[in-house]
């Protein structure tokens, strides 16, 4: 059994590298084709693994997600803010700003599998561009 873990760890760096390249391709494609859409970026002093690719739209994301899903594109909203989960409903919450809620309502997690091709990303971005109109 330990050999399975070692083999997976050896593949991990390769997968992270592919996900970083995927993120860069998404960034270039979205920047070229879509105004007002922000792709989550790494800071210059960090090296992210780019495990997921999220965008923030100027408009609510739910209708866009529904259109993408109708085209067999796996898109979903970002996570629900913890204070909005039923398990935390009885706890007091001090909201300084509504950033988490805004992101939940305006952001989308895009398909980010390490095996995605540039053609698949182009399809996602084209569908996203059309669904955002």
Give a verbal description of the structure.
This protein is an alpha+beta fold and 133 residues long. It has one domain (2-131): Aspartate Aminotransferase, domain 1, CATH 3.90.1150.10. It contains 4 helices and 4 strands. The chain has helices at residues 2-33, 62-70, 99-106, 118-131, and strands spanning 38-39, 53-56, 76-77, 107-110. A 4-stranded antiparallel sheet has the order 1-2-4-3. Helix 1 crosses helix 4 (118-131) and helix 2 (62-70) crosses helix 4.
Provide a concise account of the structure shown:
The chain has 133 residues and is an alpha+beta fold. It has helices at residues 2-33, 62-70, 99-106, 118-131, and strands at 38-39, 53-56, 76-77, 107-110.
Helices and strands in order:
Layout: H1 2-33, E1 38-39, E2 53-56, H2 62-70, E3 76-77, H3 99-106, E4 107-110, H4 118-131
Antiparallel strand pairs: 1-2, 2-4, 3-4
Helix pairs in contact: 1-4, 2-4
Shape: globular
Strand content: 5-15%
State the CATH superfamily name: Aspartate Aminotransferase, domain 1
Order of helices and strands: HEEHEHEH
Radius of gyration: 17 Å
Specify the helix fraction band. Answer: 40-55%
Q: What is the number of independent domains?
A: 1
Which CATH class?
Alpha Beta
Q: Major sheet: order of its strands? A: 1-2-4-3
| Mean pLDDT level | 90
For this structure, the CATH topology is Aspartate Aminotransferase, domain 1
Instruction: Please give the CATH architecture.
Output: Alpha-Beta Complex
Q: Tell me the major beta sheet.
A: 4 strands, antiparallel
Q: Low-confidence spans: pLDDT under 50, at least 5 residues?
A: none
Total helical segments? 4
Going by helix content, strand content and strand pairing, the class is: alpha+beta
The end-to-end span amounts to: 51 Å
Question: In total, how many beta strands?
Answer: 4
